[in-house]
# Entry
Amino acid sequence: MPAWGERLIAMITRRDVLELIDAVADRGALTMARRLHSHLHRLFRWAVGRGILEVNPMADLPKPGAAVKRDRVLSDGELRAVWKAAEKTVWPFGPAIRLLILTAARREEIGALGWSEIHGDEIRIPGERSKTGEPRIIPLSSAALALIQDLPRVGEYVFSANGSGLGGWSKAKRAIDTTAAEMNGGPLAPWRLHDIRRTTATGLQRLGVGLQVVESVLGHVSGSRAGIVGVYQRHQFEAEKRQALEAWAREIARIARGKIHDASATFIGSGSLAAAANLTAFAGAAFSGSGSLTADVQPIDMRWADAIGQADKRNVTAPLLTYLRTPGTPFGPWERRWLEELLERMQGFKRKESGRYIPLFHKSRDEIHAIAAKFVCDLQNEGMPLEPAIDTVARAHPQWYENDRNGPGSSLRAYIKRGQKPRN
# Structure
């Protein structure tokens, strides 16, 4: 402690502690003063436990002031400005801040992230680097993984300008603020990098992600997982976290494009696979046993959706074979449909005009309309008139169409009447 120089810890009195903490509080840094109180209290308590001190000089010493509860959440416009500013900010800080947004990780977790902590499509934070002291896994969405894969590899740290991890966040934050202000048409209201975590949590809840999953994404062990619940509830929500962060990555892409939030494209509660969670919407109008399209709703077997997603992610067929070899598993026309999609993808990955990889089932609103319009055409080919066919597809896909402004299916009806052609 610089303020106390080389004084022995046994010579530090209660008055010394009070003067040090009050000096910090008096310069307006109340939060820092409260944190200093906590750190010193733990230090002296440790010293008593080790027999270095007889008495803790901070026993019953109250913290200064009251805790300032932060509730700052960036709006979509502000988050877009920060994201765009980060895109214009050079390595390592620009990509690091974008990864903070995509993962909701703590600043220290990303700043000191080592290449050895990245395992495939997830980050594994060891207990000694975790705030809770427990190891934690951060799933990487396709966008986060692509970001990492594009980074230069310099030394053992993912983000490092000098080989020793990332420092100088304050300077980088000021640069982000300057660029974001230009894009926002004025400076953003005061915010901190830590507010990104709260913004992500709020965004996930807006997408329909459950509280326990949100807390798991954040790496919290308090809240709904505190006390006796945490003792008996040991589920880590790994699949649900992956699903949530994949949905959040799509939401970030929407925000970055300046699109309005679409309530019908929200996250579905829980499931075993990020992409597969949204596949149930595709299964609304299912093929009958003969292979013809009917208006009956036959949900796709989620085990097959899981297998399709795993095969797509890893570019292997083993998950499909495991499903097919399991007695009693259904394999109807809808399962065949998605197998065809996957095989086409494996044969030649679908790409945008720019050549950028598009994860399977990550569809824009127009692509969703195009798929639904194809379903309408299939119903018409079965002899159903246009309007009933549109209504049938809309009812079969409530995730997409039940919240349309002018009634369920109105946006699909408008899309078709504009003369848009369905896509394969």
Q: What stands out?
A: The beta strands are 118-119, 122-125, 136-139.
